[in-house]
Amino acid sequence: MDMLQVSVWRGGASGGYRTYEVPRRESQSVLDVVTYIQRSIDPTLSYRFACRVGMCGACAMTVNGVARWTCRTHVAKVAKGNAIQIAPLANLPVVKDLVTDMREFFDKWARALGRFVPGATRKDAFARVASDSPGRVAANAGIECIGCSVCYSSCDVVSWNPDYLGPAALNRAWTLVNDVRDGARRERLAAVAGDAGCHACHTHLSCSERCPKNIAPTAAIAGLKRAVAGAAWKGEL
Amino acid sequence: MEGRAVSSAGQGFAAGSVAAPGLSAKSEVWLWIAQRASAALLALYVLVHLATIIYAVRHGLSGAAILERTRGNAAGLAFYVLYVLAIAVHAPIGLRTLCQEWLGWRSASLNWFMAAVAVALFVFGLRAAWAVFI
Question: What letter would DSSP give residue A80?
Answer without folding.
Answer: B
